[in-house]
Amino acid sequence: MAAVGIALGLLFSLICYLATNLSPGGMITPGWLALTLVEDVRLAGMVAGVTLLTYLCTRVMQNTMILYGKRLFAAVVMCGVLLQATLYLVLQNQFPTLFAHQTLGFIVPGLIAYQLVRQPPRATLMSTATVTLGAYVVLAAGMLLGALPSS
């Protein structure tokens, strides 16, 4: 199911990008978020919170140093990874199943925050939400119809 979710997200992200010239938080992000919504909604909420913190930290960093291009991308993703890893270390004992198989989840907040910095934030959030919802609907329908295994 994970491969199908990521593939759906890639397909819908590509369609969104070609139609609107907006990146919905990166190409793999909507598929991963749709999988997260299917498996555990709490994790999706946590990713949203870490994304907001990453975006705010990036704006503060941009006021103190010159960030553009590859340096901006690396700084934003690293900030997201550090915030997500900190949250993991703090919450792993209380919620061990929340982080069971979440390797990609350490990168996703940084990818979304990077697009929030590069594009208009409202448009980025709308495109990310729309593409994620599309992938989620297809995944949930596939599970309900029995075409995909339920998690």
TrEMBL record:
Keyword Transmembrane helix belongs to the record: yes
Coiled-coil annotated residue ranges, if any: none
Keyword field: Membrane, Transmembrane, Transmembrane helix
Superkingdom, natural source: Bacteria
Transmembrane segments: 42-60, 72-91, 97-117, 129-148
Protein name: Poly-gamma-glutamate biosynthesis protein PgsC/CapC
Organism: Streptomyces siderophoricus
